[in-house]
Fold this protein.
Amino acid sequence: MSNPTAAILVIGDEILSGRTRDANMHFLAGELAAKGIDLREARIISDSVAGIAEAVNALRARHDHVFTSGGIGPTHDDITADGVAAAFGLPLGIRDDARALLAGHYARTGLEMNEARLRMARIPEGAVLIDNPISTAPGFSLENVHVMAGVPDIFRAMVASLLPRLTGGLPLLSQTLRIERGEGTIATPLGELARDFGDLSFGSYPFIQNGVYGTNVVVRGTDGARLDAAMARLARIAAAE
Amino acid sequence: MSNPTAAILVIGDEILSGRTRDANMHFLAGELAAKGIDLREARIISDSVAGIAEAVNALRARHDHVFTSGGIGPTHDDITADGVAAAFGLPLGIRDDARALLAGHYARTGLEMNEARLRMARIPEGAVLIDNPISTAPGFSLENVHVMAGVPDIFRAMVASLLPRLTGGLPLLSQTLRIERGEGTIATPLGELARDFGDLSFGSYPFIQNGVYGTNVVVRGTDGARLDAAMARLARIAAAE
């Protein structure tokens, strides 16, 4: 029995233009590893309805879950809901339950419920709302596609709302050994170790510090005893002449 | 005349597992913006020859340039060259010029040129080497696909070696205005501004600070005078009651 798989789709120009460095993907990767959902792929695309629809359809066919980040606010460039609705061939209208949530929020905060803000109540028919405890405007899940905001605080809050209703698997465990020898020196025994422990994954991350080559080896898997056994053999590789 | 387009393909498990936060994509995005090459898409995938080949073929058909990061070292999980060769239907063998580079480097440093290190001389026939001034093992360009290392220091050095031989376009300029009003309040005039300046792109990035909603609006384009004109109108939107 293997863990469910997932992809994340980050929508918007802010990362592609070099303006900001990703935060949501990094956060979600950690949450999914702990939940036992294997993040297999990430894509970052710009704001385009056709581009979003194409990526959503490619990813939802291939993974148990697709998580999107960005493009569900009130401005002209917030077109993620349009792209997701297009991917499923569904109409996109203002839904009463989402409108009621927003109306309550704006009544409490004294802000005007204008046409732009009402855009955030556009939810495809049949989608399940994702709670947004920070600024109310909800995300939504349509089948295996989970649509969330891009603002990091809100993204995190939505992930916290969503994850308890998804079925996870075995948490991904990892252990790291810092080895003061170059990758090329340990590559052969490391490859043999990886073959002998085919149920674990072995990542090899070289570094250079003060002119000396070293390697961080990260071992990942879901069985703690197997991880311990692999780490013991890795320690012998690290110590070998 | 529009700028050349590009995609980046990051290969390896370290970002998907949540272990590390992306650095190479962020660095390259900034370099490409300055060079006038439009980064349109990014993908992060795990180490799999078939997965790499599929992504390389999807991206090279769609963009003027594809930049890859990761998976060209000496260890068992370094299979990017295999994936790229498979994408092009080319054999992958040890090439004399790359072997000579490595032999010189290991002779100077006193390290053994073992079988694992020799893997780094596997370069597809016809590819142009990308210089690696840090640890010698080269990257390579095959048609419009540029294959580089994942270690951030080496990735940056390879980008510096590569970019001067690519033809860029007009550098992407950007200006940001911080507006102390919520996105929903400025969305309508901002949408009109974006329509009137269709040659520029307008990104709207909401924030919450001390309980107050605000919006950073980022305007991007290649024509400085148009950018200035848009910023002047944006300042009036920010100041409006």
Residues 10 and 44 of chain B are 5 Å apart (CA to CA). Chain B touches chain A through 67 residues (CB under 8 Å).
